[in-house]
Design goal:
The protein has 497 residues and is mostly helical. It folds into two domains: 412 residues, Up-down Bundle (Growth Hormone, Chain: A); 56 residues. The protein is built from 17 helices and three strands. The chain starts with a strand and ends with a strand.
Amino acid sequence: MSQTAVGARADAAPGAQPAPSHRWWVLAVIGLAQLMVVLDATVVNIALPTAQKALAFSDSDRQWVVTAYSLAFGSLLLLGGRLADLIGRKIVFLVGVAGFALSSALAGAAGNFEVLVTGRALQGMFGALLAPAALSLLNTTFTEAKERAKAFGIFGAIAGTGGGIGLLLGGLLTEHLSWRWTLYVNLVFAVIAFVGGLLLLRRGAPADRPKLDLPGTLLVSAGLFGLVYGFSNADTHHWSSPLTWGFLLAGGLLIAAFTWWQTRAEHPLLPLRVLLDRNRGASFLVVAISGAGMFGVFLFLTYYLQASMGYTPVRTGLAFLPMIGSLMVTAQLSTNLLIPRFGPKPVVPLGMGMAAAGMAWLTGLGLSSGYASSVLPALVLTGLGIGLVMPPAMSLATAGIAPQDAGVASAAVNTMQQIGGSIGTALLNTLAASAATSYISGKRPTAAVLAQAQLHSYATAYWWSAGFFAAGTLLTAVLYRRGRVTQDPNTPAAVHM
């Protein structure tokens, strides 16, 4: 009989502490902080044209408002996670929240492009402290199986819907206040999260603090920087550009060197035991694929609703609400009922397949398509599918982790989501642009032809997003272990075969 941990109890792990009585308030604080980080990936996007006009920067510079955040965030996540393990999750969480708030204020008050980009880079840096600390706090706070399932259902729903909420909030703030409020709004979230964290979180610094793996930190930070920067360049340069393939190659080599070093280091930054569990490894893969696939629906459907259907930013954000609602329903259903009863093997592939079908549905959208008849069903189906995928994957990716590895395991989850999103951004934008160029080739560039070229480019992105989820269906069906979740009162919950 083989077992794979999918849940954990604090009393089963050395050095663990009983769950706090106010743990649901802790979840509210953690969830609010996580929402602030997740929605910041999209809340600024809708405001970019207005910010560009106000600060007078070029189209080529515009990408750096987004890229500066993703570069700092993606390359420093593992370091942030390890610092949470070494210094203490509470202090790293509070520093992350406070720093994120101050850098948001700096970016919001920017009088020129350089200050705006600096503020965004600092947001990414402090977000790299905040995000893994938040997830590891959740992992160590909720240790009883049923409560853990409910908590991760809520947290996973926040992670999955944050992009859509960001689109809605960005539209509302830009239309009715100013583009600067897409950054200032973080101050409201941060004050509540900081005060709540200060009062509710307990100190989590370990008694025995191993040394920081400095060579590993340098290797993985440089490697992740190369990967994120390379994929970001693919969005604005050709794949044949040295700025694209050169950074991707260097990033890949540095990550390979980092992996080798982790087998030799006395105190590894990312112990390979965190990755080598079969269910956990499958869950990391799920988070990356979902990050890449979700980009298609959030970005290109936003383009379609605004450019092809003439929606305002606010109406565009409202159009995503049914997807958010359906995702929240299946997030709770999957973590509280389906995973404990059936295990991940049937549930996660089913969700991947539903998301693939939803993305494929979107490929049929045309200039005369109606929202209720064509967009809404695809959004609901995609949301239902992602709700079966993201929350279970985030829970399984951090289940059974020793307390001293909780931060770095949580950082690995965020890293996979960030790398997946970067790949999705670069690949889908490049493929969509190529599809539009190919469609126009040999035709007169009339308004009708240009409109159809746009639709063709969107459909190409949807098909590729569907392909990501379809590949995820096959991979998760193979990789996840068969079996249902059971709980032994004296040991971590396990999947029995």
